[in-house]
């Protein structure tokens, strides 16, 4: 599918926001969250630039699944490390094991639906962490209401991941053209939610 000028503009703005997040918004965080968020938004920035340069066809690469996993895993790790003191080491172990499991199941021949199940489990836990944790903390008054925007961003990244995952499995929820038509706007809206949530939350 040919990329329109609007698609490129939306992806470019997304990249600028991701760079702004890395340079200014997360600057004062402690070491591990800083590293985790930098990786997540760095991958988002590079992914957006690659799509602009190479087109939507770059999303067909098998390595995309592995690289894209770094965004929700690192975002959820940063949130868990900052806000779930009792479980932060356990969650770090989950992130490492989950990422290694995805690399192995995507790199080696695996029977049946094992790669899909592993991906769904890892993405599911990370996605629910990003979605629920900021909203719960905001409702409890531990953060400002703006922090819940991170949860909304998490829901949007979950929708995008779901659309792309089913497309790669050959069971698309929407047509390939429709998915690629909405993806740039979805990525931009997601990034806006993340930046606003972290900056004002």
Write a compact overview of the structure shown.
By secondary structure, the protein is an all-alpha fold.
Major β-sheet, in short?
none
Instruction: Estimate percent helicity.
Output: over 70%
**Oligomeric status:** single chain
Q: Report how far apart the termini are.
A: 38 Å
Dominant shape: globular
The total count of strands amounts to 0
Write down the overall mean pLDDT. 91
Indicate the topology.
Layout: H1 5-25, H2 31-54, H3 63-83, H4 88-107, H5 114-139, H6 148-168, H7 176-200
Helix pairs in contact: 1-2, 1-7, 2-3, 3-4, 3-5, 4-5, 5-6, 6-7
Structural description of this entry:
It is a single chain. The chain is mainly alpha-helical and 201 residues long. It has one domain. Helices cover 79% and strands 0% of the residues. The chain has seven helices and no strands. It has helices at residues 5-25, 31-54, 63-83, 88-107, 114-139, 148-168, 176-200. The N and C termini lie far apart (38 Å). The model has no long low-confidence stretch (mean pLDDT 91).
Features:
201 residues, mainly alpha, globular
